[in-house]
Amino acid sequence: LELARAVVAAIGASRVGIRVSPHGVFNGTGSFEGVEPQYLALARELGALKLAYLHLVDHSSLGAPVVPAEFKAHLRAAFGGTFIASGGLDRDSAERVLREGRGDLVAFGRAWLANPDLIERMQSGLPLNAPDPATFYTPGAKGYTDYPRAQAAKQTVEAV
After folding, report:
1. Are residues 24 and 61 in contact, defined by beta-carbon separation less than 8 angstroms?
2. By C-alpha distance, which of 91, 61, 94, 98 is closest to 76?
3. Per-residue DSSP letters for the chain?
4. CB-based burial, 63-95: b 16+ in 10 Å, e otherwise
5. Cα-Cα-Cα-Cα dihedral of 18, 90, 144, 131, to 10°?
6. CB neighbours (10 Å) of residue 34?
7. What is the pTM of this model?
């Protein structure tokens, strides 16, 4: 909160967003007793700052503990501003999140890395490239600029 307040003071709340991952297990972190009340208190305080957004990451699709739907709803309400949902979403599940009001926006991480033309693929119903985690956060073009574009996938689908 101290850091968020300092950044808001320096550049304005409309230019600041926070990404949180309760129940995330990256680098030995993970759930702990009181995790949900702590994140709800954090969301209320961040909401009071009128930040641009709160981005919730649910890594359960990668094996982390599930972030319960009820907790997500409480977190969204506690923040009170623009709420971004993410975590293992595809086109259909992302549409459901938006339609059901469980998020104002949705985010795609790995799908976006592997599909620089993700929007076109989703609009056209084309298959997605599978991400290659071995190339994440590595130097060079491999994994960043060498995934096939939708036109190639479209031609493959039409040929079948």
Report:
1. no
2. 98
3. -HHHHHHHHHH-GGG-EEEE-TT--GGG----TTHHHHHHHHHHHHHHTT-SEEEEE-GGGGTSPP--HHHHHHHHHHH-S-EEEESS--HHHHHHHHHTTS-SEEE-SHHHHH-TTHHHHHHHTPPPPPP-GGGTT-SSSTTTT-SPPHHHHHHHHHH-
4. ebeebeeebbebbbebbebebbbbbebebeebe
5. 120
6. 9
7. 0.84
| Token output for 96 | 């459901």
pLDDT tens for the 160 residues of the chain, in order? 999 999 999 999 999 999 998 877 666 666 768 889 999 999 999 999 999 999 999 888 877 788 889 999 999 999 999 999 999 899 999 999 999 999 999 999 889 989 989 999 999 999 999 999 898 888 888 887 888 888 754 555 555 5
CA distance 13 to 53: 9
